[in-house]
């Protein structure tokens, strides 16, 4: 009896007759031989249609198959060293029977080069391409690794709302929605609710989509992105860095263990990922500024001088983050940023309130900030003053202030953006390919 199989499992069926259902990725015409690359979502297999071994009308069909036609083939699995385009490589199917579900006409994405805007317009089809397929598979593993790590280390998944009455981050990037005549916002973060959940469960995390009306076009910013956010009771900034570090090491380990083929498809330099191990360097903002200023003083390149110029007190831009990251071959923590450039909820450093107990984790190779976190203000009066200082509507934060009234504890947490992480691990210069359907300043289609 013929087995219906997933291509990824093909190695278990050598010399057996199997059925595979999917789409034509490519076809090479050798006259009496047709090589049909068939993908089923789990892998790709070379199907060989040989005129002598098939009914005439079926071979006729096989020799007309177009890219992305949907078909079902039945045949015998063979080991074939030259079947290098198969994934897993080295197997082919000698086709005995072919059924065409739809003969596709004029598939817009051909093997020739296309511009990125064209491909983004056709994202609903582009996701079928080898490279995009590999990236999105790695993305799934990164998300699973993050969640597994949390679940295995005592964190409880507690979901946080997407429609919120108050800002969680900068008010300039809020998305307003009409909530039955009142204004509400799309969540920029789940953090504030995480802090409430932390009071109930100790160690929690949320994972979901977050929204920022970022009016800037950069390679690192999406309007809609996904974030994992842990929040931990009785946690210091140092302990928070330990958690972030262990998490990154685990993510990279999982991707390396499961995605050799996908990493090869996207031509990722694996040696860079193999270096990711504890410990990561931890430098203060003060130190980071000093290092950048030294770099500026020592460079002869006037463009670099201008790009990297920085005064104490300013936030880092992409060029600064890249230059700092290039000083290390692993992710690097930068802690104690100026309070003025960070969010309202961050704990001031004792005796030095102009800086806060914050930490950003910068990815190596110039992929920028992948995690942002901090100790939170746990004192009621300090938080109230900070809300007023930042001109936030205190009445909307009444519940958040409550958390500082009823058994407040020192606590800390961070957020890690999935897309920036995928960009780093896959070595992609732009985040638009790291998410199935990117929302960018100039794009919400498809
Ligand atoms: O540094 P951010 O803004 O921190 C927070 O949202 C905190 N409330 C998290 C927390 O402590 N629970 O964002 C955290 C991370 C960034 O390091 C980055 O990886 C990602 O989220 N991120 C973005 N990714 C893509 N597009 C954007 N517009 C992003 N903004 C932030
Ligand atoms: Mg940040």
Q: What is the CATH topology descriptor of the largest domain? A: BirA Bifunctional Protein, domain 2
* Rg computed from alpha carbons, rounded to a whole number of angstroms: 26 Å
Q: What is the overall number of helices?
A: 14
Q: How many domains, in number, for the residues?
A: 2
- The CATH superfamily title of the largest domain: Bira Bifunctional Protein, Domain 2
Mean pLDDT: 97
- Strands side by side in the biggest sheet: 7-11-12-19-18-17-14-13
Mind summarizing the main beta sheet? 8 strands, mixed
CATH architecture term of the largest domain: 2-Layer Sandwich
Count of DSSP strands: 19
Ions, cofactors and other ligands present here are: 4-amino-1,4-dioxobutan-2-aminium adenosine-5'-monophosphate, magnesium ion
In the CATH hierarchy, what is the class of the largest domain?
Alpha Beta
- Poorly predicted runs are none
Shape: elongated
Helix content: 25-40%
Description:
The protein is an alpha+beta fold and 446 residues long. The protein folds into two domains: 3-102, Nucleic acid-binding proteins (OB fold (Dihydrolipoamide Acetyltransferase, E2P)); 123-433, Bira Bifunctional Protein, Domain 2 (BirA Bifunctional Protein, domain 2), CATH 3.30.930. The protein is built from 14 helices and 19 strands. It has helices at residues 56-62, 116-121, 123-126, 130-152, 191-201, 237-258, 260-265, 270-274, 285-298, 302-308, 318-325, 380-389, 398-402, 418-426, and strands at 3-4, 17-30, 33-39, 44-50, 70-79, 91-102, 156-157, 163-164, 176-179, 182-186, 203-211, 224-233, 281-284, 332-335, 348-349, 352-356, 358-363, 368-375, 411-417. The strands form four sheets. An eight-stranded mixed β-sheet has the order 7-11-12-19-18-17-14-13, with helices on both faces. Strands 2-3-4-6-5 form a five-stranded mixed barrel. It has a three-stranded antiparallel β-sheet with strand order 8-10-9, with no helix packed on it. Strand 9 and strand 10 form a beta hairpin. Helix 4 crosses helix 6. The radius of gyration is 26 Å and the shape is elongated. The two termini are 42 Å apart. The mean pLDDT is 97. 4-amino-1,4-dioxobutan-2-aminium adenosine-5'-monophosphate (4AD) binds at residues 168-169, 189, 191, 212, 214, 221-222, 225, 227, 229, 369-373, 413-417, 419-420, 431.
């Amino acid at each position: 009896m013929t087995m219906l199989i997933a291509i990824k499992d093909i190695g278990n069926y050598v010399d057996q007759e199997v059925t595979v259902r999917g789409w034509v990725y490519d076809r090479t015409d050798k006259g009496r031989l047709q090589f049909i690359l068939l993908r089923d979502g789990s892998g790709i297999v070379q199907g060989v249609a040989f005129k002598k071994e098939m009914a005439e009308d079926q071979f006729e069909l096989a020799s007309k198959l177009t890219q992305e036609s949907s078909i079902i083939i039945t045949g015998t699995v063979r080991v074939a060293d030259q079947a290098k385009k198969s994934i897993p490589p080295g197997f082919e199917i000698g086709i005995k029977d072919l059924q065409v579900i739809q003969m596709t006409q004029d598939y817009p994405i051909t093997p020739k080069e296309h511009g990125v805007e064209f491909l983004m317009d056709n994202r609903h089809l582009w996701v079928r391409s080898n490279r995009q397929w590999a990236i999105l598979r790695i993305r799934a593993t990164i998300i699973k690794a993050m969640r597994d790590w949390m679940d295995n280390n005592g964190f409880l998944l507690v979901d946080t709302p997407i429609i919120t009455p108050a800002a969680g981050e900068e008010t300039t990037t809020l998305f307003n929605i009409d909530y039955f005549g009142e204004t509400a916002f799309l969540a920029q973060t789940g953090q504030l609710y995480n802090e409430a959940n932390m009071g109930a469960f100790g160690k929690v995390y949320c994972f979901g989509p977050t929204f920022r009306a970022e009016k800037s076009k950069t390679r690192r910013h999406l309007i809609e992105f996904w974030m994992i956010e842990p929040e931990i009771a009785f946690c210091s900034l140092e302990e928070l860095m330990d958690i972030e570090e262990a998490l990154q090491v685990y993510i990279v380990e999982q991707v390396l263990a499961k995605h050799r083929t996908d990493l090869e498809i996207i031509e990722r330099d694996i040696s860079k990922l193999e270096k990711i191990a504890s410990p990561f360097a931890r430098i203060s903002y003060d130190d980071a500024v000093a290092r950048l200023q030294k770099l500026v003083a020592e460079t002869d390149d006037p463009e670099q001088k201008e790009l990297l110029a920085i005064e104490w007190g300013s936030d880092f831009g992409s060029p600064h983050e890249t230059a700092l990251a290039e000083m290390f071959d692993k992710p690097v923590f930068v802690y104690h940023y100026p309070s003025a450039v960070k969010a309202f909820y961050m704990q001031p450093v004792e005796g030095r309130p102009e800086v806060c107990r914050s930490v950003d984790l910068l990815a190596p190779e110039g992929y920028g900030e992948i995690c942002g976190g901090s100790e939170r203000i746990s004192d009621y009066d300090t938080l109230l003053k900070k809300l007023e200082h930042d001109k936030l509507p205190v009445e909307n934060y009444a519940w958040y202030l409550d958390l500082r009234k009823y058994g407040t504890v020192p606590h800390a947490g961070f957020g890690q953006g999935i897309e920036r992480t995928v960009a780093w691990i896959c070595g992609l210069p732009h985040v638009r390919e790291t998410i199935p359907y990117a929302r960018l300043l100039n794009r919400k289609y498809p």
